[in-house]
């Protein structure tokens, strides 16, 4: 009797052990996906997004702001949203007012061919004087004049880089009297420029241009990429300063410091303003081995 009881107890214990072993182990909660770095996101955007009317930049908090203009609609907008959604929570989409465009309409006005652009900064190297302006201006004209009738020649395009970058250098004629090293403020006065640097996020800045004169705003992004429709331009400064066609190539500055050259943007100076992008000047000066003065 006792042996039978022991056998039944042993069988019950074995069955209980089997039952316990059949219960699956509790699964740990999956780790949340790791947020991509800004560098990884911008690399993916550069590789995968080639949509005219888009731009992006790294924000101070390490996220990436992707902007699109009024022309990005329908299938293009759906494609942009699909590609950015794959990059996770480190990306924010922003719709810009108006259309991203170069501000060529052709500092002070200069005319090349049928185009109107603005002089950026006068520069010098070994006693030879030049001025720098936007690359998309340098691409469309080899000779530049101070008047629309093309009677007073002021320079010849030596080199330009666009897209990818947006800068050009125009050489003044040999033997020319030393051009002024200041920026014209369109109020009868000028601002002397003695150094070049890159502005910090939030810096209050000024822009001068042949169409709209002197305007101001703040730096809202660094190392931005923009696509006007003929290829991306990288490494740009984004600002809240307005600009219009004809302001291309004009100077971005504050006090006696040169910051950049007007590239393009979305706004106009009679409406909401929009955004304007600038080619940083330090890259241009290094490329050509010249300096402001």
Could you characterize the architecture of this molecule?
The protein is α+β, with helices and mostly antiparallel strands and 293 residues long. 19% of the residues lie in helices and 38% in strands. It is built from five helices and 21 strands. The protein has helices spanning 2-22, 38-48, 74-85, 135-138, 281-288, and strands at residues 54-58, 64-68, 91-95, 101-102, 109-112, 115-118, 121-125, 128-133, 143-145, 153-161, 167-171, 182-184, 190-192, 195-196, 204-209, 213-227, 232-239, 251-254, 257-265, 276-280, 291-292. The longest helix has 21 residues, at 2-22.
Task: Give the tags.
293 residues
List the helices and strands and how they pair.
Blueprint lengths: L1 H21 L15 H11 L5 E5 L5 E5 L5 H12 L5 E5 L5 E2 L6 E4 L2 E4 L2 E5 L2 E6 L1 H4 L4 E3 L7 E9 L5 E5 L10 E3 L5 E3 L2 E2 L7 E6 L3 E15 L4 E8 L11 E4 L2 E9 L10 E5 H8 L2 E2 L1
Parallel strand pairs: 2-3, 14-19
Antiparallel strand pairs: 1-2, 1-16, 4-19, 5-6, 7-8, 7-21, 8-11, 9-10, 10-11, 12-13, 15-16, 15-18, 16-17, 17-20, 18-19, 19-20
Describe what is shown at a glance.
A hairpin with a 2-residue loop joins strand 7 (121-125) and strand 8.
Structural class: alpha+beta
What distance separates the N and C termini? 112 Å
**Biggest pleated-sheet summary:** 6 strands, antiparallel, barrel
Number of helices: 5
Q: Which consecutive residue ranges, at least 5 long each, have pLDDT under 50?
A: 10-24
What is the tally of beta strands? 21
Q: Which outline best applies?
A: elongated
Instruction: Compute the average pLDDT.
Output: 90
Radius of gyration of CA atoms, rounded to a whole number: 29 Å
Task: Estimate the strand proportion.
Answer: 35-45%
Q: Bin the helical content.
A: 10-25%
SSE topology string: HHEEHEEEEEEHEEEEEEEEEEEEHE
Strand order of the largest sheet: 15-16-17-20-19-18
């Amino acid at each position: 009797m006792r042996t039978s009881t022991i056998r039944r107890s042993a069988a019950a214990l074995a069955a209980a052990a089997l039952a316990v072993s059949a219960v699956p182990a509790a699964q740990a909660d999956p780790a949340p996906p790791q947020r991509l770095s800004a560098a990884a996101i911008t690399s993916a955007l550069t590789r995968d997004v080639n949509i005219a009317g888009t731009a992006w930049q790294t924000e101070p908090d390490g996220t990436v702001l992707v902007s699109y203009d009024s022309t990005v609609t329908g299938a293009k907008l759906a494609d942009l949203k699909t590609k950015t959604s794959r990059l996770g929570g480190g990306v924010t989409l922003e719709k810009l007012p108006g259309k991203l465009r170069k501000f060529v309409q052709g500092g002070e006005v200069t005319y090349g061919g049928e185009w109107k652009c603005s002089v950026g900064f006068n520069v010098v190297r070994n006693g030879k004087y030049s001025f720098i302006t936007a690359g998309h201006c340098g691409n469309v004209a080899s000779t530049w004049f101070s008047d629309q009738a093309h009677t007073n020649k002021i320079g010849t395009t030596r080199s330009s880089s666009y897209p990818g970058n947006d800068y050009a250098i125009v050489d003044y004629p040999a033997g020319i009297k030393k051009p002024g090293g200041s920026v014209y403020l369109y109020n009868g006065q000028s601002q002397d420029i003695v150094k070049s640097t890159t502005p910090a996020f939030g810096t209050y800045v000024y822009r001068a241009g042949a169409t709209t004169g002197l305007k101001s705003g703040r730096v809202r992004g660094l190392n931005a990429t923009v696509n006007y429709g003929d290829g991306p331009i990288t490494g740009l400064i984004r600002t809240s300063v307005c600009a219009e066609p004809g302001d291309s190539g004009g100077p971005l500055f504050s006090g006696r410091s040169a910051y950049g050259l007007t590239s393009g943007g979305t706004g106009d100076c009679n409406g909401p303003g929009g955004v304007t992008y600038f080619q940083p000047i330090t890259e241009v000066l290094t490329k050509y081995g010249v300096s402001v003065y």
